[in-house]
Design goal:
single chain; 7-stranded parallel beta sheet; alpha/beta
Length: about 280
């Protein structure tokens, strides 16, 4: 099957469609620093050396650790870095929605400093669902863009209806929702992104390795890992799909990125499409 290897964010920045999610460069439970920060920085540099030019993170990863390590490891020109605000972490590690406009505007300044950039490439609302109305959170993003703090605006964990409400206020460059070869509850959101040429970043793209027998059978036929098959299927499923698999392992990083070279047959693609 033919597919494009690149996607243009907001009609201005072209990236390779297979990126890297930097949540796992933090400590256990996505809390605190990793045991070896130098190894984490080396992993980020290795990802760029392998051709990654699109990295996703968030202020809540650590909190703050992932952004800081990216800023220490990479030059701003190395990759488009997408970060997020709108989730807080408590001492138990719970993820708490918090879309307060003042918090978002302040966090944009903090994230910009951690990343070591003049302008954040892509700034995403991590989730709706806080006590703050969606429109107020989106307005804060719009003001950050008007003030030159961010280049592009994205959303995460949204419905089609919420996407439409946000698009009434701002140009939305990307959406990041849970999606993988075995979990496609947000297919309608993906289809809306296709209609509007919005990049779709599937979080949990490898389903924590729980991919099932059909994926493993296709992997065996190609002599590759099931992870590669799952990522290759995502890339072939939609031209706006931007998978961001994350790992703290160099071996897994290299294996994941090899998926960009894997071509499934039409029969294999259809077999996996019918899993949902």
């Amino acid at each position: 099957m033919n597919r494009s290897d690149t996607f243009t964010i907001g009609d201005s920045t072209t990236i390779h469609r297979l990126g890297y999610g930097a949540m796992r460069v933090t400590g256990p439970g996505v809390i605190g620093p990793p045991a070896d920060e130098s190894a984490a920085r080396a992993l980020l540099r290795h990802a760029v050396d392998l051709g990654v030019d699109f990295i996703d993170t968030a202020d809540s990863y650590g909190p703050g650790v992932s952004e800081r390590l990216i800023g220490e490891a990479l030059d701003p020109a190395d990759a488009l870095v997408a970060t997020k605000a709108g989730l807080l972490r408590n001492t138990d590690g719970d993820w708490l929605p918090h879309g307060d406009p003042d918090y978002i505007r302040n966090q944009a300044l903090v994230s910009r400093d951690r990343l070591g950039v003049e302008r954040i490439d892509l700034y995403q609302l991590h989730t709706p669902g806080s006590e703050t109305p969606l429109e107020e959170s989106v307005q804060a993003l719009a003001e950050c863009k008007d003030d030159g703090l961010i280049e592009h605006i994205g959303l995460s964990n949204v419905t089609v209806e919420q996407l439409e409400r946000a698009r009434d206020q701002v140009e939305v460059a990307t959406v990041q929702n849970r999606y993988n070869v075995t979990y496609r509850d947000d297919e309608d959101v993906l289809q809306a992104c296709e209609e509007y040429d919005i990049g779709f970043m599937p979080w949990y793209p490898l389903a924590a390795g729980d991919l099932g027998g059909p994926v493993e059978a296709v992997a065996d036929a190609h002599g590759v890992s099931p992870h590669q098959v799952a990522l290759a299927w995502l890339l072939e499923h939609s031209e706006v799909m931007l998978p961001i698999p994350g790992t703290s392992s160099v071996e897994h990083l290299e294996d994941n990125l090899a998926a960009s070279q894997l071509e499934l047959t039409d029969a294999e693609y259809t077999r996996l499409a019918n899993l949902s």
